[in-house]
Specification:
- This protein is α+β, with helices and mostly antiparallel strands.
- It contains five helices and ten strands.
- The protein has one domain (10-182): PK beta-barrel domain-like (M1 Pyruvate Kinase, Domain 3, Beta Barrel), CATH 2.40.33.
- The chain has helices at residues 80-90, 137-143, 148-155, 188-195, 214-227; strands spanning 10-16, 36-37, 42-44, 75-79, 103-106, 118-121, 125-132, 160-166, 168-170, 176-180.
- The chain is 21% helix and 21% strand.
């Protein structure tokens, strides 16, 4: 279940991670999926193209730049309400940042956000929703839960990746305002289903226009070429 849109929408925590060597990945730089909340403001800016740029947050590390980070995945946001629901299902605490998210929100329907939707966080930063998070084996190893990739995929509430439109500083407690909602129905959740369990939905993603993650646009073109 995604977070509700009622009440005040805000940032609960801003989370960053450092590279660690762990047994569940053989990447030479390890992984920085273990994000922890930080005190005070954090600078947010476009990091550069994927493969070169890392995280959009100062002090945050991206190890596998071929798969993570870059301008279209500069910031990853997860709703605290979704973490709470997973806590109940798994029977264990899940701290802010546990899913590797940079921003943990309260009162915001993150997976129900539209591709191209823009959020103002605090007085300076504007972010634009680009895509949903596709789970990987590193995520499963970090959580230590059996069949985690499958379970996370079945839930269909992946959280959102965002690009930086206006840079600046963010901090815990900042309000989140939706300043633009595009005129289409492609949500993060629909995007996720199209890329994972319901690929027949892929052509619908094109209605999101230029805001659509470039890798998803490539997947759509390949699907249409193959199936018409």
């Amino acid at each position: 279940m995604s977070a509700g849109a009622s009440g005040v929408m805000k940032v609960l925590s801003v989370n960053v991670g450092r590279a660690q060597s762990v047994p569940y990945t053989d990447h030479p730089q390890g992984t920085a999926i273990d994000k922890r909340p930080v005190d005070g403001p954090v600078r947010v800016a476009a990091p550069g193209p994927k493969g070169i740029g890392g995280s959009g947050l100062a002090g945050d590390t991206v190890c596998s730049k071929e798969h993570h980070g870059g301008d279209e995945q500069a910031v990853y946001a997860v709703a605290r309400e979704d973490l709470d629901e997973w806590e109940r299902e798994l029977g264990r605490p899940l701290s802010d940042g546990m899913f590797g998210e940079n921003v943990t929100t309260r009162g915001l329907d993150v997976s129900g956000a539209l591709i191209g939707e823009r959020w103002r966080i605090g007085p300076e930063v504007v972010l634009e929703v680009t895509s949903g998070r596709i789970p990987c084996v590193t995520f499963q190893g970090h959580l230590g839960e059996k069949r985690w990739v499958k379970r996370f995929t079945e839930r269909g509430a992946p959280g959102a990746y965002l690009r930086v439109i206006e840079p600046g500083e963010i901090r815990a407690g900042d309000p989140v305002d939706i300043v633009h909602r595009p005129d289409h129905d492609v949500t993060v959740a629909l995007y996720f289903r199209a890329l994972t369990t319901e690929r027949a939905l892929l052509p619908r993603l094109l209605t999101a226009g230029a805001a659509l993650h470039s890798e998803a646009a490539t997947a759509v073109r390949e699907y249409v070429k193959k199936y018409g």
